[in-house]
UniProtKB/TrEMBL annotation:
S-adenosyl-L-methionine binds at H13, L15, G41, D63, D87, N106. CDD domains: AdoMet_MTases. It is found in: Cytoplasm. InterPro entries: KsgA/Erm (IPR001737), rRNA_Ade_diMease-like_C (IPR023165), rRNA_Ade_methylase_Trfase_N (IPR020598), rRNA_adenine_dimethylase (IPR011530), SAM-dependent_MTases_sf (IPR029063). Keywords: Cytoplasm, Methyltransferase, RNA-binding, rRNA processing, S-adenosyl-L-methionine, Transferase. This is Ribosomal RNA small subunit methyltransferase A. SMART domains: rADc. Belongs to the class I-like SAM-binding methyltransferase superfamily. rRNA adenine N(6)-methyltransferase family. RsmA subfamily.
Amino acid sequence: MTVVRAKKHLGQHFLTDKNTAKRIVNALRPEKGFDKVLEVGPGMGILSDFLLEDKRFESWLIDLDIESVEFLKTKYPSLDKRLIHGDFLLLDFASVFPGPLAIIGNFPYNISSQILFKVLEHRHQVIELVGMFQKEVAERCAAKPGGKDYGILSVFLQAYYDIAYLFTVKAGAFNPPPKVLSGVIRLERNSIDRLACNENLFQKIVKAGFNQRRKTLRNALSVIADKARMPNHPFLDLRAERLSVDDFIELTNEIEKSLK
Ligand SMILES: C[S@@+](CC[C@H](N)C(=O)[O-])C[C@H]1O[C@@H](n2cnc3c(N)ncnc32)[C@H](O)[C@@H]1O
């Protein structure tokens, strides 16, 4: 079988280390309630080999690269409609996967944030994600309050998912090797009721707070409402990076009350 030529614009760095591939697939926890797994960007199938062996769930693959898809068609002739040629970012989830599912991938790093925002958009279906990102992005997802990595992506993701940083992968595990280290993380959907607040206002507050992250929240949030209408709450004297997700929820509820 000829191999797929690595294309830079598709973020193609093929993992060659089978042990790493196995560790990524083994990090899935179907006992959490999914029976379908969608692999984003299977490339030449190093993760798919392990996924398709696992009979606890049904695996689906989507790749944007026609050369990869042709390669995988020959490699896994029985996959049929479970091998999709298409753009994950444009995938109409509801029509292909009506129920709960997990997402896995050694993701193309050039579209990491878009992948994560797509997952957030479909958070009611995506109950788990296991995958590899550029190490910095993986660290940002899992970051705790107080550090420079903690930002909008961390708060939005952690509002809906419990996140664990699993392990780091060196550039030498890929062909061609990327210029950066990689990190594998797992996102698990947390309790649906956690976000007991006005989600729209929550998102506005988080965005405004981090957009001017060196200012106290009282100053940064003046784009949302006049300072005089803000509650007298101690969180407003802090910078956004000091607040946990639960603190942001509490603040959202306080601000909503005082704006009524
Ligand atoms: C980093 S490579 C990983 C390939 C393979 N999983 C591996 O571990 O060797 C990323 C893969 O994502 C695919 N890809 C890039 N953009 C995509 C998109 N928007 N939707 C689906 N797949 C995409 C690329 O074609 C490539 O196969």
